[in-house]
Design goal:
This protein is of the alpha/beta class and about 325 residues long. The protein contains eleven helices and eleven strands. The strands form two sheets. Strands 1, 2, 3, 6, 7, 8, 9, 10 and 11 form a nine-stranded mixed sheet that branches. Strands 4-5 form a two-stranded antiparallel ribbon. α10 links the parallel β10 and β11. The longest helix is centred in the N-terminal third of the chain and has 22 residues. It is globular. The relative contact order is 0.15.
């Protein structure tokens, strides 16, 4: 054996054992976040499988199912109103090919009479309420309901208005900043650092890398939520790529990388709540909770409520 291997192998073995020890006992190194709420049932776009997405009717329907979290996206109108809308362009939702930012709030068109449920292709939602919703009206209607607000574009006016509304309605602890892009999340945190944050795509990648390198127990985690797609939905209800072969490959790779119970348990022990989206079938609910997830975001809050009620109360976190 070479001198290098003589010293390197025991050092590597010791590193692996120490890393594994603290992976299972992270509280010896870190004080866990204390959650202000625990979202078991999250309503995607307000529950877009049962009512027209992001309407007050959808939100009220989800709250009737005792939703713990309302998930939504926001954009800014021409006259500076923060509206709840997944898309920047209104064509898919209304048939009018205009951006939200090109119209005043009062001029926003009605939603279509029915909308396809994105994560349940071939299924459509309908509802009596076809009006787009102001974020402020949602805060007034459900003042103590936790919400995840995703910002998709680098619009500082939008970000500061959301931050101001959250402060005005005293919702700092129960409103989550969400964005896929770290550059946008940086601006969100600067606008209101008291709001909890979720992982961006790049931050999620780094957590996975640190996990597989054995470094995760030794790094700090400022985020309080990991809101992540469940890999089992790829190529079934979620098609991130236009080519079937790529979706099949993504499903296999993502399942191997992400669906690690030891990773979920480590994050949970550090107070990082793991919520999987967007799950619309009972088999996916089961997979998520068996992994140790805090909760699930769904288009069908009634189905998830029935599942949770049949499952019984959650076990207390250790």
């Amino acid at each position: 054996m070479s001198p290098l291997l003589y010293y390197a192998l025991p050092a590597l073995g010791s590193y692996v054992m120490v890393s594994f020890f603290f992976l299972r006992r992270p509280r010896l190194l870190h004080t866990p976040w204390v959650p202000a709420f625990r979202p078991r049932l999250g309503a995607h776009r307000g529950g877009s499988g049962e009512r027209l997405e992001n309407t007050m009717e959808a939100m009220e329907n989800s709250m009737a199912q005792r939703a713990d979290l309302l998930e939504l996206d926001c954009h800014l109108t021409r006259d500076g109103v923060v509206v709840v809308s997944h898309d920047k362009n209104l064509f898919r939702q209304t048939g009018v090919n205009r951006d939200v930012g090109s119209l005043n709030f009062e001029d926003l068109p009605l939603l279509k009479e029915e909308l396809e449920v994105y994560f349940s292709p071939g299924h459509f939602a309908r509802g009596a309420d076809r009006h787009m919703l102001r974020l402020e009206d949602l805060f007034r209607r459900f003042p103590r309901t936790p919400m995840s607000v995703e910002v998709k574009e680098r619009n500082e006016e939008l970000i500061h208005k959301i931050a101001g509304l959250v402060r005005h309605y005293d919702r700092n602890e129960i409103t989550i900043w969400a964005s896929e892009k770290s550059s946008i999340m940086k601006k969100c945190k600067a606008a209101n650092p008291e709001m909890p944050t979720s992982f961006t795509l790049s931050r999620g990648f780094w957590v996975l890398l640190f996990y597989y390198l054995g470094l995760l127990p030794f790094i700090s985690i400022p985020e309080k939520f990991l809101i992540c797609f469940l890999p089992t939905i790829i190529n079934r209800t979620y098609f991130p790529f236009s080519r079937s072969g790529l979706n099949q490959l993504a499903a296999v790779v993502a399942k191997w990388l992400i669906m690690r119970k030891s990773l979920i348990q480590h994050l949970q022990q550090r107070g990082v709540q793991v919520v999987f989206w967007c799950l619309n079938e009972e088999s996916d609910f089961e997979a998520a909770f068996n992994l140790g997830a805090t909760g699930v975001i769904t288009d069908y809050p009634t189905a998830l409520r029935c599942y949770l009620d049949s499952r019984g109360p959650p076990a207390l976190a250790s």
